[in-house]
């Protein structure tokens, strides 16, 4: 058969989804598509798989890494030529929303936005003395929460200290943990919100306000 066409891809930290069009000259009935991939810097063998669809998700990839991905069509008389592309997974993102609520003098509740595919979240805390004249770091710690959660209790804090909190996302790829960057540390009562979410909320509020005025 001829070569497949219009090979495109979407990506996440640990997966690349590819889609393509069948060969314009199939020279028979396409029975299967063969897919191969490996890290673009590798000289080792490709991982090879196949599908009868014109799309496929390659999972278990390393974040922020470039891969060479190829697709070719098969008919009853054999395979066509490979169509290869360089595709990259994305860097592990920062949590887009994160805030800390003080429950009492020794405990806080951390809440964050859900990230699909995350294996776990790590909330870090660091403290300074309560004196406003001289601040010094006196305690650090962390709590790990499962990837299917969006909140976690952090207790056992010293009531005489002021704390700052940050969070990171981790992915488990074939038993190896890849951790993203931490957010900027914030005290209880503050919220981290990405610019894109903030802009979306502002647009919604403005649009809703205009709708109310127009319909008065």
What does this protein look like?
Strand 3 (32-39) and strand 4 form a beta hairpin. The protein is 9% helix and 50% strand. It is elongated, with a radius of gyration of 25 Å. It has one helix at 195-214; strands at 5-11, 15-21, 32-39, 47-51, 55-59, 66-75, 78-79, 83-88, 97-104, 107-112, 120-129, 137-146, 151-154, 161-173, 176-179, 191-193. The longest helix is centred in the last third of the chain and has 20 residues, at 195-214. Residues 195-216 have low confidence and may be disordered. The protein has two domains: 5-88, Immunoglobulins (Immunoglobulin-like, Sandwich), CATH 2.60.40; 97-210, Immunoglobulins (Immunoglobulin-like, Sandwich), CATH 2.60.40.10.
Helix content: under 10%
Q: Report the major sheet.
A: 5 strands, antiparallel
Q: Kindly, what is the distance between the CA atoms of the first and last residues, rounded to a whole number of angstroms?
A: 64 Å
Seen as an oligomer or otherwise, the chain set is: single chain
Strand content: over 45%
Global shape: elongated
Helix and strand string, N-terminal first? EEEEEEEEEEEEEEEEH
SS-based class: mainly beta
Uncertain runs: 195-216
What is the CATH class name of the largest domain?
A: Mainly Beta
Which fold name corresponds to the CATH topology of the largest domain?
Immunoglobulin-like
Number of strands: 16
Tell me the CATH architecture of the largest domain.
Sandwich
How many helices? The count is 1
- Domain unit count: 2
